[in-house]
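Problem: given the chain below (84 residues), write out its structure.
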Amino acid sequence: MSQYRVEFSTLAAKQIRKLDPPVRRKVLLAIAELETNPRPDGVKKLSAESNAWRIRIGDYRVLYEIHDGELVVIIFRAARREAY
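Solution.
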């Protein structure tokens, strides 16, 4: 499988920086795994968006888009359950 590149929106980067260090580590680890598998077990496709996906890390949600043609994953939100 090809290696994807992970990019962060300004909002997502800011949200991740604000997380407590232990939570931030878990979230960043889960995001790093998206480089090799952007559709891991437990991923949900968001019906409201055409190309949006969600992974759950405890009480936190990471919302992202997958661009298979460019091998890019764009993280656009990372927050508690109210991420939607």
